[in-house]
Structures are given as structure tokens and as C-alpha cells.
Automatic annotation (TrEMBL):
Transmembrane segments: 34-51
GO CC entries: endoplasmic reticulum membrane
Top-rank EC class of the record's enzyme: transferase
Family, similarity comment: Belongs to the ELO family.
Location in or out of the cell: Membrane
PANTHER family (alphabetical): ELONGATION OF VERY LONG CHAIN FATTY ACIDS PROTEIN 6, FATTY ACID ACYL TRANSFERASE-RELATED
The name this protein goes by in its record: Elongation of very long chain fatty acids protein
GO biological processes: fatty acid elongation, monounsaturated fatty acid; fatty acid elongation, polyunsaturated fatty acid; fatty acid elongation, saturated fatty acid; sphingolipid biosynthetic process; very long-chain fatty acid biosynthetic process
Coiled coil: none
Pfam families attached to this UniProt entry: ELO
Reaction equation(s) it catalyzes: a very-long-chain acyl-CoA + malonyl-CoA + H(+) = a very-long-chain 3-oxoacyl-CoA + CO2 + CoA
Organism: Chelonoidis abingdonii
Sample GO molecular function, one term: fatty acid elongase activity
Annotated EC: 2.3.1.199
Length: 74
């Protein structure tokens, strides 16, 4: 059985990544994740509330055509 090894090339930004600096930034800014999570939840539930009474889009046919075109041209 011939098993080849996949070698991945490192990009320049990966070579220059400073792990200690990233860890320090995360430790200093962990509270921001709660703020961003709350804003995200407010956006999602607020958007659902605002869009509740609007008419639905009928997108079944365009999405079928889109999926078919992706399958054919891939």
C-alpha cells in the first residue's frame, strides 16, 4: 500500500507568529468575548423580531439552479 505524506507549506505570517504575544493579548482582553457574544445575540434575536412580520422570499428555484450550476461547473 502506497501511502504518501502530505507536506504543508508554511506561510510567512505563520513563521512570524509570536505565540507569547498572542497569549498575553488573550489574557488581557478575555472580557471582550462576553461583550461581543452579547452583541451577537442581540443582533440575531433583534433581527428575528424585526423580520417576523415580513413576507418570506421564495428562493427554492434560484437555490436549486445555483446548486446545480456549482455541481456542473465544479
Amino acid at each position: 500500500m502506497n501511502m504518501s505524506v502530505l507536506t504543508l507549506q508554511e506561510y510567512e505570517f505563520e513563521k512570524q507568529f509570536n505565540e507569547n504575544e498572542a497569549i498575553q493579548w488573550m489574557q488581557e482582553n478575555w472580557k471582550k468575548s462576553f461583550l461581543f457574544s452579547a452583541l451577537y445575540a442581540a443582533f440575531i434575536f433583534g433581527g428575528r423580531h424585526l423580520m417576523n412580520k415580513r413576507a418570506k422570499f421564495e428562493l427554492r428555484k434560484p437555490l436549486v439552479l445555483w446548486s446545480l450550476s456549482l455541481a456542473v461547473f465544479r
